[in-house]
Amino acid sequence: HVQLVESGGGSVQAGGSLRLSCTASGDTENTYCMGWFRQAPGKEREGVAVIDYYGSTSYADSVKGRFTISRDNDKNTLYVEMHSLKLEDTAMYYCAADGRPSCGQLRLGPAGWASWGQGTQVTVS
Known about the structure:
mainly beta; seven-stranded mixed β-sheet; 11 strands; 0% helix
């Protein structure tokens, strides 16, 4: 089992930037694919970006060009740099991990992920 802990959330003005981090511990071999998801009040959880162990990435159309996902495998840490933040980016952001060797656009759906963090709130005003 993989434990995931997110950090870096907060309040920011529209147009601002934030960087979220997610540190994995435990059975970190099961982190081939990692991703960021978000859920706004009253809405379903949606994928933001995913990245495989080798750094191949996929993004939701809503964040392309504004968000950058990355990972440091030595530190077992996942990141997302968020720029030009908009009001509609306000949500709880969750980190997810899965050990299966499948990581691409199709993994932007929230189903089928083995491990989830508790989330970190991002509020854009």
